[in-house]
Amino acid sequence: QKEVEQDPGPLSVPEGAIVSLNCTYSNSAFQYFMWYRQYSRKGPELLMYTYSSGNKEDGRFTAQVDKSSKYISLFIRDSQPSDSATYLCAAEPYNFNKFYFGSGTKLNVKP
Amino acid sequence: GAGVSQTPSNKVTEKGKYVELRCDPISGHTALYWYRQSLGQGPEFLIYFQGTGAADDSGLPNDRFFAVRPEGSVSTLKIQRTERGDSAVYLCASSLRTSGSPDTQYFGPGTRLTVL
Question: What residues of B are in contact with residue A49 (Cβ under 8 Å)?
């Protein structure tokens, strides 16, 4: 079993839809949770990170962590075709030195 | 440039050959990471450098893989006797690595390695 599990999709939605992307994890030591966006043939770019449980909002993006259920979510409001990419969740134990990534969810936002 | 750069962007080699992949981190970043990303998968940790030393090489799959960072800046990932299963995108990331806070890792575009 992988440390971080993510539904690979693909997920196809119409422009303007609310998108929900989710991951689960198994390691209770994980403290930091990140969402990366990766366009085709590019490196991942950091979207957001959260520390422990709770919500964090940045523009159209909201990251949510529920440590009691070991569940990580990213919500995208008013989705745009430019949001079409693969979204990777990642987790890091406190003061550790490596990220554990999910396998990525491919999102397609149709105009 | 302001970001992490990696060369070459693509590398095609034959089974059994030796390859070197280079990473140029963001200036001033003390921490450097190598990951491997297979098709349809997320990045998988290989090795982490803090300065010149390899602080954690637990992700290197076997002794054919080796990485160096002799001056604490540029790093080279070296793969000996390449196998077809080594084909993947090799990603490099760097960060400031401040103790006790989330580590914001900035990724390069990757080197796509194909072993024929």
Answer: 102, 104
State the amino acid at position B55 in one-letter form.
A
Q: How far apart are CA A16 and CA B99, in angstroms?
A: 40
Task: Give tens-digit pLDDT for B2-12.
Answer: 899 999 999 99
B15 CB contacts (<8 Å, ≥6 apart)? B82, B83, B84, B115, B116
Q: How far is residue B107's CA from residue B43's CA, in Å, rounded to a whole number?
A: 11
Check CB contact of A49 with chain B, cutoff 8 Å: yes
Higher pLDDT among residues B100 and B57, named by residue: B57
Q: Is A105 on the interface with B (CB under 8 A)?
A: no
**DSSP string for residues in B69-93:** -TTSS-EEEEE-S--GGG-EEEEEE
Residue B69: is its pLDDT beyond 70? yes
Phi, psi dihedrals of residue A5, rounded to the nearest 5°:
-110, 140
**What type of residue is A94?**
Y
Predicted confidence (pLDDT) per residue in A35-66, tens digit: 999 999 899 999 998 887 888 999 999 999 99
Distance linking the first and last C-alpha atoms of chain B: 33
